[in-house]
Each structure stands twice: as structure tokens, then as C-alpha cells.
């Protein structure tokens, strides 16, 4: 049984565009506690999670990475592949066993360039997801590091 895609992705892309994108997917599986990428590393791929949960984190000097968000079934993992210099802005680690569709970033960027309608739709979706991730990260970091009782 296939996990439904995020409703925002299905709204952003037509059925034909989603099917074309999924033709370039490679099914992958990762065990629990697998580091998928590290903040600052080269972003050459992205995933649509089919099952499981991935945590997103930021590096904190002298401490373990701080978890700022999670990505679940049906959601897109990774946006740094779309913007030069193609470096991860967060780190990611599987919290549970994860099955996903994996995409080669260069291939998808070429598809976007070749079909501006598809490119615009995917850009728009990734932008919405990016805004959500940054807001979640901001809220979580304030929870973790704002002085208690500061009103922040």
C-alpha cells in the first residue's frame, strides 16, 4: 500500500507532474538512527517519506544537535538541493525505520528547467514547506534557548 503524498504537494502538482516526478524515484529504506545528512554537507538528493519519521536538527557547539522538527510519512525531506550552493541547512536522522522515495537533485532540477510549469509548481511547494520548517525551527529554538520568563 502506498502512503498518500502530502496534500500540499498533490495540490501543487498535477497528477501527470506527480507521476512524472515519481518515475525518477528510487525506493530506499533506512534503519532507525541513521544519519541521512549533516548540516553543511552537499545536498545532492531529497526524499518523500513513505513510512517512518525523520528528525531535523541544528548543530549546537559543545552539545548534541538540537532537534527542531520532524518529517513524517507523505512529506518532503530536504529543500537545500534546490538552492545554490546546495548545502544542507539542517541535519537529519531517522527516528524510526524509514522507507522513502529518493530523488537525484540534479535530475529534478533539469526537469524543472525543461518544464517551467512543473518547475514553478515544485518551487512553490518547496517554498511553502521551507517556510513551515523555518517557523518550526524558530519556535523550537526559542523553546530551547530563550531565557525562561523572558516573554519570548
Low-confidence residue ranges:
none
Q: What gyration radius follows from the Cα positions, in whole Å?
A: 16 Å
Instruction: Please give the alpha-carbon distance between the first and last residues.
Output: 44 Å
By helix and strand content, what is the structural category?
alpha+beta
Question: CATH superfamily membership, which one?
Answer: Jelly Rolls
Strand order of the largest sheet: 1-8-3-6
Helix-strand topology string:
HHEEEEEEEEHH
InterPro entries: cNMP-bd_dom, cNMP-bd_dom_sf, RmlC-like_jellyroll
Protein name: Cyclic nucleotide-binding domain-containing protein
Domain Cyclic nucleotide-binding: 9-78
How would you sum up this structure, described in words?
- This protein has 152 residues and is an alpha+beta fold.
- Helices cover 36% and strands 26% of the residues.
- The protein contains 4 helices and 8 strands; from the N terminus they run H-H-E-E-E-E-E-E-E-E-H-H.
- A 4-stranded antiparallel β-sheet has the order 1-8-3-6. A 4-stranded antiparallel β-sheet has the order 2-7-4-5.
- A hairpin with a 7-residue loop joins strand 4 and strand 5.
- The chain is globular and about 50 Å long.
- The mean pLDDT is 87.
Amino acid at each position: 500500500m502506498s502512503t498518500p503524498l502530502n496534500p500540499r504537494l498533490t495540490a501543487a502538482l498535477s497528477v501527470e507532474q506527480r507521476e512524472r516526478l515519481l518515475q525518477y524515484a528510487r525506493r530506499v529504506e533506512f534503519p532507525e538512527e541513521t544519519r541521512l545528512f549533516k548540516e553543511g554537507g552537499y545536498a545532492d538528493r531529497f526524499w518523500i517519506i513513505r513510512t517512518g519519521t525523520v528528525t531535523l536538527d541544528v548543530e549546537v557547539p559543545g552539545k548534541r544537535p538540537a532537534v527542531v522538527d520532524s518529517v513524517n510519512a507523505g512529506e518532503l525531506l530536504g529543500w537545500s538541493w534546490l538552492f545554490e550552493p546546495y548545502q544542507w541547512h539542517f541535519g537529519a536522522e531517522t527516528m524510526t525505520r524509514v522507507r522513502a522515495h529518493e530523488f537525484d537533485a540534479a535530475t529534478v532540477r533539469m526537469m524543472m528547467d525543461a518544464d517551467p510549469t512543473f518547475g514553478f509548481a515544485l518551487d512553490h511547494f518547496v517554498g511553502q514547506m521551507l517556510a513551515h520548517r523555518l517557523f518550526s525551527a524558530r519556535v523550537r529554538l526559542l523553546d530551547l534557548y530563550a531565557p525562561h520568563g523572558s516573554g519570548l
